[in-house]
Amino acid sequence: MQVYGLLSGLVERGHVQAMLAEKAETPAAANNLRKRLIQLLDHAISLDWRGDNPVRATKPYRNTGTGFHSWEEKEIAQFFAVYKPGTLAHRAVTLNCAAQASYG
Question: InterPro entries under this entry (predicted)?
């Protein structure tokens, strides 16, 4: 859908639900799209381009994901075997490991 159609008063809640349904297989992506659409249409309201925000009438998708996998010592060793000291990747992971260790 073109941005003009979204910002004009033509888009209703059903249209937004259809857009979000296209991303239903990835609930986090659908929820991110929903957040950005809310921001966009809130801005359109502040500019007097729209009188309502139909995205706010939709519900976010339930995200049942477990989050990111934490690396085991073996995986960190594999990474350091490929990325030698002095590389940006090595430095970034070293800093991250140090930061995580400081949190307990």
Answer: DNA_brk_join_enz, Integrase_recombinase_N
Q: Which residue has the tokens 């239903």?
A: 24
Ranges of each domain in the chain: 3-57, 73-102
Who wins on pLDDT, 104 or 15?
A: 15
Q: What is the pTM of this model?
A: 0.64
12-19 long-range contacts, CB within 8 A, separation 24+: 12/54, 13/54, 13/55, 13/57, 13/58, 15/54, 16/54, 16/55, 16/57, 16/58, 17/58
Q: For residues 61 and 23, what is the distance between their CA atoms, to the nearest angstrom?
A: 10
What is the spatial distance between Cα 41 and Cα 55, in angstroms, rounded to a whole number? 8
